[in-house]
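Case study 2.
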Amino acid sequence: MTFCVEKCNGVHYGKRSIDVEYSLYGQPLEEVASQKDFGVVLSNDLKIRKQCEEAYSKASQMLGLTNRTIQFKNPSLASIV
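Prediction:
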């Protein structure tokens, strides 16, 4: 199996990460602070801040879309939410 070097990244996890340059097929990999894998954002400091920010952003987008799309808004339904 061959890998596309441009699509591969290197992430150092933890506070005492060793400064190692990773390479693939003789080409150095780009070092990034966080990487998304299977829908989960993994950051180099092992905190979930980026994951929460992305979830909040997606929820806000969906709420905005719903608000713009719905034509009739019954005021009595607002007390339920």
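Residues 5-69 form one domain.
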